[in-house]
Amino acid sequence: MHAVLQKNFWLETVRQLAAGMFTGMFLLWSGAACAAESTVSFELDVQPVLTAYGCNSGPCHGKARGQNGFKLSLFGYDSGFDHMSITQMARGRRLFLASPNRSLLLRKATGEAPHGGGVRFGRESDAYKTLATWVAQGAPRRSPREPTLTRIELSPRRLVLQPGNDARLRVTAFYSDGTKRDATALATYQSNESAVVSVVGPGQVEAGALPGEATIMARYMNRIETCNVAIPLPGDVSDGEYDSLPVRNFIDRHVWHKLKTMRFLPAPPAGDATFLRRVSIDLIGRLPTPEEARRFLEDPSSDKRARLVDQLLERREFADHWANKWADLLRPNPYRVGIKTVFNFDQWIREQFRNDVPYDEFVRRLLTAQGSTWHNGAVTLFRDRRSPEERTSMVSQLFLGIRLECAKCHHHPFEKWSQRDYFGFAAFFGSTARKGTGLSP
What we know:
The structure is a single chain. It is built from 17 helices and ten strands. By secondary structure, the protein is of the alpha+beta class. Strand 4 and strand 5 (180-182) form a beta hairpin.
């Protein structure tokens, strides 16, 4: 009985191998016949599918340790690693070139094999056909003349919707050879305010019942673009209401334009007492004295507010107040640099404000400082932030308004920055040297 079972087992094995060899030969023949017109690219076709269906996202195989032994780079930023992970790792068990439909990669995605991520797409979907064709063609890495993705374009960039209305967005991908393709279906979308505007489908957004503004982020591979959506307040406001608003500088024009878009009328001007209190706290960090308040309130001139602002900007308290703010932002650690060095740094910042140093010059002096921390307070920045990584994180956030920390380990999940951008920026600080250690001068 055992011999019969063993014989049947080997016969079935040989039969499957023969069928696989025949299928493989047929696929090679058919693939060669149509390769010239329908070659599937791993980077241009397969990676967008894996990204669109969340396979390489943080909660799935894109996490630092992967998922159940299968790891992909986050959002496909490292195509070389991803191709190797799919085709070679785990002894290549994820692909079955002789019978693509039996590939573990496809069987898990369609739910034919147990999959922690559930069913991602069906056999009749375009995603399945793309992956199956790629496997049938031998799962190639890339062709020598294959173009690269250079940018994406999201249109429209701005929308004004009424509550309950919907709109369609379109994502177009542009490549290095001048070609472009519609990437709307394979792009992923996210709203930062789902209560105002929600994503209801690929490229389709819907306004909620609440007025407000939201930003829709569209990601295709490692490129990101945004669309700003406004839901105005209900009712009508005549254009004359906004045309009559005073314009004292170019900032006012932008503010009035935004208010007009949202159908929002500004509050009436604050009274003299309220204005005095607000501008004093904002500029010099304290309330006006009774004498200062009496003098301002009794002044009948029409330009007294503008003159008050100029006077406050010239006062010593303005430099001290804003130097304290910048000291909080730069926050030197006295345990790393010493108390005297912290005082020198604080004094240097105050001198910049007292001398009315322009902002760009202030930043330039800070980032190019050299010498001893006892004689040049600006050097404290480099004594305190000692590694290129520390300086990169601080400078990018403080002066560029972006957080690059995520890109140190992987592609930034909500920005366009990659590890190459992070370490390229960090290289600017790599040649900065310092003498001594600890609390040395």
